[in-house]
Amino acid sequence: MATKLASTETDFDVVIIGAGISGIGAAHYLATQRPTTSYAILEGRADIGGTWNLFKYPGIRSDSDMPSFCFGFRPWTHKKSIADADIILDYLNATIDQNGIAGHIRFDTKVSSAEFDSETGRWSIHAVNSSTGESTVYTARFIYSGTGYYNYEAGYTPEFAGLDTFGGQVVHPQHWPEDLDYSGKKVVVIGSGATAVTVVPAMASTAAHVTMLQRSPSYVLALPAEDAIANTLNKLVGPQRAHAIIRRKNIAINRGLFKACERMPSVMRRLLIAGVRRRLPKGFDVDTHFTPNYAPWDQRLCMVPNGDLFTAISSGRASVVTDHIEAFTETGIALKSGQHLDADIVVTATGLNLLPLGGIDLRVDGSPVDIADTVAYKAMMLSGVPNFVFAFGYTNLAWTLKVELVCAHLIRLLDHMDAHGHAVVTPMLPASGVERTPMIEMSSGYVQRKIATFPKAGSTGPWTVKMAYEDDIARLKHGPVADPALRFTSRSASYVTAS
Question: What mean pLDDT is predicted for residues 436-446?
Answer without folding.
Answer: 89
